[in-house]
């Protein structure tokens, strides 16, 4: 299992694929490599059951969107940690889809909707 430091509630844990792990480690994040959505769901349940002391768990977006509904409901009720989807870097929805995704993440993290004017301010 993963060891967590005393000030862990301010830490970020990233659940991602092996190919992206090095970049997150270089950025200073704790990283947990998972092979697929099923493994991500299993590890996420274990972390929540253990009461892992991290502030945010960022899950590779393709895995997050594949989590089963009971686990997603549990995530919504459990705080901390805040569990969010981590963008995969792909842009399947174009610029407008990306903007909507970012607004959704802000709403999820802050608790209310934030809007920007047409110039992105």
Automatic annotation (TrEMBL):
- Spell out the Gene3D superfamilies in the cross-references: ATPase, V1 complex, subunit F
Q: Does this UniProt record's set of keywords contain Ion transport?
A: yes
One Pfam family per UniProt: ATP-synt_F
Keywords per UniProt:
Ion transport, Transport
Record's superkingdom? Bacteria
Q: Which family does it belong to?
A: Belongs to the V-ATPase F subunit family.
Q: What is this protein called?
A: V-type ATP synthase subunit F
Native organism is: Cryobacterium sandaracinum
**Taxonomically, what lineage is the organism?**
Bacteria, Bacillati, Actinomycetota, Actinomycetes, Micrococcales
């Amino acid at each position: 299992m993963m060891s967590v430091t005393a000030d862990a509630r301010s830490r970020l844990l990233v659940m991602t694929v092996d190919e992206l792990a090095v970049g997150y480690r270089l950025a200073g994040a704790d990283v947990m490599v998972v092979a697929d959505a099923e493994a991500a769901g299993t590890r996420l349940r274990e972390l929540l059951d253990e009461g892992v002391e991290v502030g945010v768990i960022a899950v590779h977006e393709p895995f997050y969107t594949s989590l089963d509904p009971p686990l997603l409901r549990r995530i919504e009720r459990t705080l901390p940690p805040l569990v969010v989807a981590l963008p995969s870097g792909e842009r399947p929805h174009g610029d407008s889809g990306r903007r909507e995704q970012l607004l959704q993440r802000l709403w999820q993290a802050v608790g209310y909707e934030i809007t920007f004017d047409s110039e992105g301010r």
